[in-house]
Write a structure and sequence with these properties.
Structural class: alpha/beta
CATH architecture of the largest domain: 2-Layer Sandwich
Number of strands: 13
CATH class of the largest domain: Alpha Beta
Largest sheet: 7 strands, mixed
CATH topology of the largest domain: Dihydrodipicolinate Reductase, domain 2
Mean pLDDT: 96
Order of helices and strands: EHEHEHEHEHEHEHEEEEEHHE
Distance between the termini: 36 Å
Shape: globular
Radius of gyration: 19 Å
Strand content: 15-25%
Length: about 300
């Protein structure tokens, strides 16, 4: 299976390529290979601008990836497309450029930096009958799946924490908070009704209330240890899960390559859209901590 990458300005592009193209890697996945890529990059996004050249050279020289001149050239030759541009603002435009080729498409987190763009992507995909998925690699971590599989009764709440550096071009929680909000969605399910969020120089703290009255929190940190975790409150026990582990990329790749080429996504679009709405509500709440509803449809 030929995988084509759109965007070479984030580390995930390199990590996915490593696990597909390096047969000596302990997490190598057989049956697919990154064969081509388009570098992309955003001039007004320093982290993108400073990394795209280095990552392009790395995938070309270390992993034998052919660098092509346009997104359309990649889509024309690939069987599956990964949109791995670091800048969530450009994901909709990139998808629009390749939709005519009708390739199954994985879109890196965040799928977009607004609900309107995210919904437009799914509308385009539905109309063209193109399977599309987007998620954080935190969604498929084995420790979290194993914890939720334990027979400890329903989830009555959870407290997630994780690093949350900020980037000026990526609004609020969209840059790194998206990882932890995705974990909230996995643990609690859909149905978030409103959020309150407070920001200081070092910390974001978000409280989310579900329609059934359950409450969850997210603490995003800009100092201290770089670590992801969640405390899950169950009817019969309290569980702590250390979320940071090396197999995130392998498990995500396995889900993508198993399901997308067969015309389905392992992540319901409704979950992805709710994650975007929760982040938008949290961003609106940050200046004054007021309660902001997570409105249906954005």
């Amino acid at each position: 299976m030929r995988v084509g990458l759109l965007g070479l300005d984030m580390s995930h592009a390199v990590e996915f390529t490593r696990r597909l193209n390096d047969s000596s890697h302990p997490e190598c996945i057989a049956g697919a290979r990154v064969t081509c890529a388009w570098p992309g990059g955003s001039d007004d996004f320093e982290l993108s601008r400073s990394r795209v050249g280095r990552f392009t050279q790395q995938v070309r020289e270390e992993f034998g990836v052919e660098i092509l001149p346009s997104p359309q050239a990649v889509a024309q030759t690939a069987d599956v497309i990964f949109i791995t541009a670091a800048d969530g603002r450009v994901h909709r435009r990139l998808f629009e450029q390749v939709i005519e080729f009708r390739r199954p498409t994985f879109i890196e987190k965040p799928i977009a930096t607004s609900h309107s763009d995210a919904a437009a992507i799914f509308d385009l995909a539905l109309a063209a009958k193109v399977p599309v998925m987007s998620c954080s690699t935190a969604r498929f971590g084995a420790p979290l799946a194993n914890a939720l599989a334990e027979h400890l009764g329903p989830v009555i709440g959870c407290d997630v924490f994780g690093p949350m550096p900020e980037e000026p071009t990526q609004p609020g929680l969209f840059w790194y908070g998206v990882h932890s909000v995705e974990v909230l969605n996995v643990v609690m399910g859909r149905g978030c009704r409103e959020v309150r969020s407070v920001r200081t120089d070092e910390t974001d703290l978000m409280t989310a209330t579900w329609r059934d009255g359950r409450i969850a929190t997210f603490r995003g940190t800009r100092s201290g240890e770089w670590k992801f975790g969640v405390t899950i409150h169950r009817a019969k026990a309290v569980q702590f899960v250390d979320l940071l582990h090396n197999s995130w990329f392998k498990e995500t790749l396995e889900r993508i390559l198993r399901d997308l080429p067969n015309g389905k996504s392992p992540v319901d679009p409704a979950d992805t859209l709710e994650i975007v709405r929760v982040i938008e509500a949290a961003n609106k709440s940050r200046p004054d901590g007021r309660a902001v509803p997570v409105e249906e449809g954005g």
